């Protein structure tokens, strides 16, 4: 149960090796925090982060979670709740970027990007929502992306998957608000991480720390959507309403 | 049956619960039997500041009911009162008959059941102890649906675990309470201001024994040579000779009507160091230098918190947190350290009160112990508050002190174990009367009071 300052006692991170996910969890480390569950495809890769948290005196558990193993999500979430009681904060940070240059030859690779980012987000999100609703409190952070706001031709699959996830998360926020559960959707622009290594930074690029800081503030204030950097919100208001001929001519 | 988001009086950390309002023993028993795996907790008037009377995902029984039975027995000076009755309703009934509650907190808006669950204290603690001291017996609904009578001489372990037990041993249905006879509905109050914290502590140490009631307001924004300056008010129930001619005609007249209420929406940061500082200075300057005696009404002296309805709204949407601790007598240096830390932080609190406690109750989770208790409130969204409270927690616990669970909204489970060394004794009783863990609250979950 959160205290009066909104400090969580228990955190579940889905996407244990996500740099953004880890940075967000680190922001919520307060004297109130007792337990962190790190769920990821290769839990062993989260060992350094787990060790850092343990060094701070926290109880840390790593569990295997594969975003595309939808059939397993319900049982995994049930198990986390059964062993740790209420989870005060859930951070959904898993995702893959995909390589659009391969999709022509390998349509399955494109489908997998949707499978991880969107379908996995939906099956995990539905399972999480049930437990959050049943406990009657808690916060859920969903890492979306500005890529879903108006999907660019150069990044169609990732953008569409994030658009779907974002839309789902918005509805989840509306559904869970009456249950005392606040959902915060984070829409970062280009973030320099290992996922984007080798890519040319887009305009208004931001950093892991900036995203984590903004997320902390947004969760504390109960905001539903946070753009990082904040200027991307007005930028995308314009982009979203650009007439198609102009939008198509932009080198995006 | 309905679901509702509930918070404590501090309006922080809401959770959604199924809320029912059963009336009478049979209905309460039926409601409790229907509780799911997240359990049930009783809720009175919701004046606990934190999450004591909320139960996310579970059942909350709203039991405040001023129409509950009040049976006054003037021959023995006792009253048997349904637990949902508020002290306000009880006072309206008993004061005109020449009786007063043995203990009252700073608000009348608490139920008798809540008073037992928190083992509340008042300005007379140094003389009369806490609420449970004056309870001769109570009727308790246990987790298995049985109803038992318990008292200091009848299953005392259960009785004392319930007094201060935050509703986690059962639901109090009715309480038999020893009352205090009074000749008037007024209080003869002596007011004096003190130059600093040392002066205040010295006057309380030397003079409290001469009064039934004693409490001090402390200016937590004053620094330097004014550190901990305050206004000390002490008093006794007035006798008819104290009253003027007009008042003496009706010595037991009692009218606690509240005429003011805070607006539903207030500007952000209405309470800041500038406004609170101005208020504190005015309040301090207004008080007489030397002792001055006045005659005050019961609401004016005992229930300043009730002068403005919904005063918790003054802290805005972010809500407020109360911080109340006690440190043993002899730990005046620690008390001073805490006040210095708060003053240094410019923490704007205008309801800071200091009280010198007498002997504690026997309840393993009962808060009072001989020592100094300081209570203050702060806007919950003040930056750095969690860190500040963490520092204060260490000072208090290292001095052998503890925190009041009815006010708590931030403590770490280890702080309860450290402050309440008899916690395991309490858990033992709970295991006996509630092996399945039917009683549960958000407070109990956060503080790991229950498995």
Model description:
The complex is a heterodimer of chains A (252) and B (451). Helix content of chain A is 44%, strand content 15%. Chain A is α/β, with parallel strands linked by helices. Chain A has a seven-stranded parallel sheet, sandwiched between helices. In chain A, strand 4 (89-92), helix 4 (107-135) and strand 5 form a beta-alpha-beta unit. In chain A, helix 1 (19-27) packs across helix 6 (208-220), helix 3 runs parallel beside helix 4 and helix 4 runs parallel beside helix 5 (156-176). In chain B, helix 10 runs antiparallel to helix 11. The mean pLDDT of chain B is 95. Chain B is of the alpha+beta class. Chain B contains 14 helices and 21 strands. Classes of the chains: A alpha/beta (252), B alpha+beta (451).
Distance between the termini of chain A: 45 Å
Distance between the termini of chain B: 27 Å
Task: Count all strands of chain B and give the number.
Answer: 21
Architecture (CATH level 2) name of the largest domain in chain B = 2-Layer Sandwich
The structural domain count of chain A equals 1
Our Rg estimate of chain A from Cα atoms comes to: 18 Å
How large is the count of helical segments of chain A?
Answer: 8
CATH topology heading of chain A: Rossmann fold
* Physical arrangement of strands within the biggest beta sheet of chain B: 16-12-14-13-19-20-18-21
Average pLDDT rating of chain A: 96
User: Order of strands across the widest beta sheet of chain A?
Assistant: 3-2-1-4-5-6-7
The global form of chain B is globular
Arithmetic mean pLDDT of chain B? 95
**Class by alpha and beta content of chain B:** alpha+beta
Instruction: Please work out how many helical segments of chain B DSSP would assign.
Output: 14
């Amino acid at each position: 149960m959160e205290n009066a300052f909104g400090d969580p006692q228990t955190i579940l991170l889905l996407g244990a090796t996500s740099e953004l996910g880890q940075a967000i969890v680190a922001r919520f480390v307060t004297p109130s925090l007792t337990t962190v569950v790190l769920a990821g495809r290769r839990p062993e890769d989260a060992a350094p982060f787990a060790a850092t948290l343990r060094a701070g005196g926290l109880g840390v558990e790593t569990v295997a979670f594969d975003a595309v193993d939808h059939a397993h999500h319900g049982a995994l979430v049930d198990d986390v709740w059964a062993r740790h009681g209420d989870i005060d904060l859930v951070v959904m940070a898993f995702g893959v970027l995909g390589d659009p240059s391969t999709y022509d030859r390998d349509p399955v690779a494109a489908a997998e990007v949707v499978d991880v980012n969107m379908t996995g987000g939906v099956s995990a999100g539905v399972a999480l929502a049930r437990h959050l609703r049943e406990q009657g409190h808690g916060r859920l952070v969903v890492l979306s992306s500005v890529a879903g706001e108006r999907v660019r031709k150069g990044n169609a699959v990732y953008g569409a998957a994030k658009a779907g996830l974002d839309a789902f998360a918005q509805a989840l926020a509306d559904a869970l608000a009456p249950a005392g559960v606040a959902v915060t959707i984070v829409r970062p622009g280009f973030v320099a991480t290992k996922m984007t290594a080798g890519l040319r930074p887009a305009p208004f690029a931001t950093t892991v720390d900036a995203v984590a800081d903004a997320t902390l503030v947004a969760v504390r204030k109960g905001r539903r959507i946070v753009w990082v950097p904040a200027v991307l919100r007005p930028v995308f208001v314009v982009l979203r309403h650009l007439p198609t001929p102009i939008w198509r001519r932009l080198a995006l | 049956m309905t679901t509702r988001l509930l918070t404590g009086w501090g309006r922080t950390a809401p959770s959604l619960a199924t809320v029912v309002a059963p009336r009478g023993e049979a209905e309460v028993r039926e409601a409790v039997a229907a509780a799911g795996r997240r359990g049930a907790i009783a809720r009175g008037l919701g004046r606990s500041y934190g999450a004591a009377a909320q139960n996310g995902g579970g059942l909350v029984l709203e039991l405040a009911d001023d129409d509950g039975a009040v049976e006054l027995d003037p021959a023995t000076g006792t009253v048997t009162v349904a637990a949902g009755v508020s002290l306000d309703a009880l006072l309206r009934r008993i004061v005109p008959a020449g009786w007063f509650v043995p203990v009252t907190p700073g608000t009348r808006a608490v139920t008798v059941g809540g008073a037992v669950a928190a083992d509340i204290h008042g300005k007379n603690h140094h003389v009369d102890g806490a609420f449970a001291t004056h309870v001769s017996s109570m009727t308790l609904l246990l987790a298995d649906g049985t109803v038992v009578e318990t008292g200091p001489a009848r299953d005392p372990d259960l009785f004392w675990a319930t007094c201060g037990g935050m509703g986690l041993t059962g639901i109090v249905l009715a309480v038999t309470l020893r009352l205090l006879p009074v000749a008037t509905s007024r209080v003869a109050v002596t007011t004096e201001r003190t130059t600093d914290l040392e002066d205040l502590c010295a006057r309380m140490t030397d003079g409290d024994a001469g009064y039934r009631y004693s409490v001090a307001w402390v200016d937590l924004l004053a620094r330097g040579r004014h550190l901990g300056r305050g206004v000390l008010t002490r008093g006794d129930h007035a006798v008819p000779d104290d009253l003027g001619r007009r008042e003496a005609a009706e010595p037991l007249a009692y009218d606690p009507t509240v005429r003011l209420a805070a607006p539903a929406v207030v500007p952000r940061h209405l309470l800041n160091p500038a406004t609170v500082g101005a208020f504190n200075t005015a309040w301090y300057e207004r008080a007489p230098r030397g002792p001055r005696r006045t005659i005050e009404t019961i609401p004016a002296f005992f229930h300043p918190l009730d002068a403005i309805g919904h005063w918790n709204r003054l802290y805005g949407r972010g809500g407020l947190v109360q911080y109340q601790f006690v440190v043993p007598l002899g730990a005046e240096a620690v008390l001073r350290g805490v006040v210095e830390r708060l003053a240094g932080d410019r923490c704007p609190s205008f309801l800071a009160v200091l009280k010198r406690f007498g002997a504690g109750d026997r309840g393993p989770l009962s808060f009072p112990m001989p020592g100094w208790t300081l209570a203050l409130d702060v806007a919950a969204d003040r930056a750095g508050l969690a860190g500040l409270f963490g520092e204060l927690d260490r000072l208090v616990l290292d001095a052998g002190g503890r925190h009041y669970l009815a006010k708590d909204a931030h403590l770490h489970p280890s702080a309860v174990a450290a402050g309440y060394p008899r916690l395991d004794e309490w858990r033992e009783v709970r295991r006996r009367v509630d092996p399945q863990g039917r009683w549960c609250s958000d407070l109990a979950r956060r503080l790991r009071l229950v498995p």
